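Final report, closing paragraph on structural work. Over the funding period we assembled a curated collection of sequence-structure pairs, and we close with a single example.
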Amino acid sequence: MWFLLLVSLSVLGNDCPRLHQHETVTVRKILDGDTILLMDGRVIRFIGIDTPELNKHRSAAAEDGALAAARWLAKKIEKGSRLKLVFGPERRDDYGRLLAHPLTGDGRLLVASMLAAGLGELLLLPPNTAYWPCLLAAEQAARRQRLGVWSQPLEARPVGGGIQRLRVRVQDVRWRGDRVILHLQGGGRALSGNRLPAADRQALAHVGAGDWLFLRGWVQHQEPGWQLWLNHPWQFYREK
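Its predicted structure, as stored:
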């Protein structure tokens, strides 16, 4: 299965860059598939990926794929090893963790390799949104091969609420002012949010009835169905 990205015309390619401005740190241990502890006590949460939860501090069992992600990372980043980091414009999350891109030895984005292996899914929160086209392309490669977190088919309708990944079919497309509204088979709606760039809003409007879409985002349930807001271009693409 191949995918057609709905991206702005300014995106010329999906190759991940080499980054040269970085801080070199020493790793104390791996906390889980997307979080590490440094020798100086700082906790680093990787930008661009969300791996399944180990649930170390909860009574729940580890989510499927959590151990695989943590073990993969532990092999790539050994205890006491040196690691290059590029910090995001927003340096801390709500839990006080520092937000950074980990790099390979030659300056590539390590998260791109993780996404391509199906170890987690793409997660980018403004303003830490750089490099999203190449990260999305890496995730799509894993999904084509049904690797890791993509091993099971996606639902066509939400299961519960919260963040969902869906494969949906478009029933019709409408404009309301400058907002695009996709009515989906099965009673759902996807709406362009205020933060979605104009070029991506236009691309969304060119989706046709009968097209299949990949969608991700926070699902809200309300009568008579459910809805999902699209504020970022990596939340959706048309499947071919």
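Confidence is low (pLDDT under 50) at residues 1-13. Residues 166 and 205 are 19 Å apart (CA to CA). We thank the funder for supporting this effort.
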